[in-house]
Fold this sequence. Notes:
single chain; alpha+beta; Aminopeptidase; five-stranded antiparallel beta sheet; 5 helices; 26% helix; binds coenzyme A
Amino acid sequence: xxxxxxxxxxxxxxxxxxxxxxxxxxxxxxxxxxxxxxxxxxxxxxxxxxxxxxxxxxxxxxxxxxxxxxxxxxxxxxxxxxxxxxxxxxxxxxxxxxxxxxxxxxxxxxxxxxxxxxxxxxxxxxxxxxxxxxxxxxxxxxxxxxxxxxxxxxxxxxxxxxxxxxxxxxxxxxxxxxxxxxxxxxxxxxxxxxxxxxxx
Length: 200
Ligand SMILES: CC(C)(COP(=O)(O)OP(=O)(O)OC[C@H]1O[C@@H](n2cnc3c(N)ncnc32)[C@H](O)[C@@H]1OP(=O)(O)O)[C@@H](O)C(=O)NCCC(=O)NCCS
């Protein structure tokens, strides 16, 4: 199966949100009464408006033009004392359930990191599945001496340098991502947004 990776365009927006919603099983969670969090399809929608980097919002497309996967990056920082170092965050990463485990997620990650290097970004930090991402070169952020905003480290908090040594100067620092990812802030807005989708 041939998969093409290209930047997301405006005409793709709703399809990408639907894919994200399906990949993260949002409708199943609603059925189980777990409507509290998280809200990945809303995050994608909102990231396009603030903090998202559209040059690093990429879709995976089948030969017939059908979009089956998506990845998006956003601006984040590592702070240490009076220093604030720009870094990339990424996520959500979504592959439509029926197209998972055939390499599409990996292809999106490789395309994203390749583009990010060409755009001169120095490092990527994010929270994700610790069993999936190390195969692409991500390591625990602790290796670089960087903690989350509250000062903690754990396997789901990962990092990768795109330029060797980029994170050295903020060793001992803390990581701050967009507050888009703080769903408690946005709970009611998100519920209203989700009503535009069918729950099937
Ligand atoms: C996680 C996700 C993006 C992976 O994309 P994918 O296209 O299915 O993954 P790939 O085919 O590139 O996977 C390559 C390898 O990674 C491993 N892998 C894939 N999904 C995995 C998972 N969920 N957990 C652990 N390992 C995984 C497997 O070893 C796989 O190779 P294999 O199928 O030969 O065993 C996709 O399953 C998805 O959209 N899941 C729901 C949303 C989600 O969890 N997003 C990530 C949040 S951090």
